[in-house]
Amino acid sequence: NLRGVTVEVQKFEDFSWLNASYVPVLKQLQDSDTQSYYFSGHNDDGRTPIKFRNPKYLSMLNHLRFYIPEVFPALKKVVFLDDDVVVQKDLSALFSIDLNKNVNGAVETCMETFHRYHKYLNYSHPLIRSHFDPDACGWAFGMNVFDLVEWRKRNVTGIYHYWQEKNVDRTLWKLGTLPPGLLT
C-alpha cells in the first residue's frame, strides 16, 4: 500500500545555490591542484593508491546528502538510503523512531576494526588527533534516519563545510564522503 507516499524528482541543475561559492567540493573541483590530483593521473611516487584518486568521490551526488535540509526545506525527518541498499520490507516504522534530539539514527558497524575512525582519518594530523577518538565506531552510512529539525539547529551542513575546507590539501582524509560524515 503506497497511500500517503510522495515521490519527488528534482534536477541537480535546479538548485542554483549548489555552486562553488557555497559548496566546498565544487570549489575544490575548480582548483587546478585538485584537478591534477584526481584527473591527470600524475605520479606522486606511488604514495597515494589509485583508489584514493578516483574522481567519483568528488561527485556532487555523493555529497548531496549533506544538503538534504536545503533540498527539502519543509520536511522534518528523512530516511536516507544509498542507491545500493536493497529494501526487503516496509521501512515506515523508521519515521516513528525517537532520535532523542540526535541528528542521525543509524546502525553502528563496530564488529570489525576496519569500521573504526582510525581507518578513515589521518590521526597523525593534530586537528584529527585532538578532536576524535581513533577507536570510535563508524556506522552504516547508506541507511540513515535524519532529524532535519535538529540538523538545522546544529548547522550540520556548516560543520560539514568546515571539515571540507580544512581538508582542501587532503591531509585529514583521502577518500570519499564517509570521513567528512564521521567528522560532521
UniProtKB/TrEMBL annotation:
Annotated EC: 2.4.1.-
Biochemical pathway: Glycan metabolism; pectin biosynthesis
Keyword vocabulary terms for this entry: Cell wall biogenesis/degradation, Glycosyltransferase, Golgi apparatus, Transferase
One CC-aspect GO term: Golgi membrane
GO biological process terms, semicolon-separated: cell wall organization; pectin biosynthetic process
SUPFAM superfamilies given in the database record: Nucleotide-diphospho-sugar transferases
Identification of the protein by name: Hexosyltransferase
Native source organism of the sequence: Neslia paniculata
Lineage: Eukaryota, Viridiplantae, Streptophyta, Embryophyta, Tracheophyta
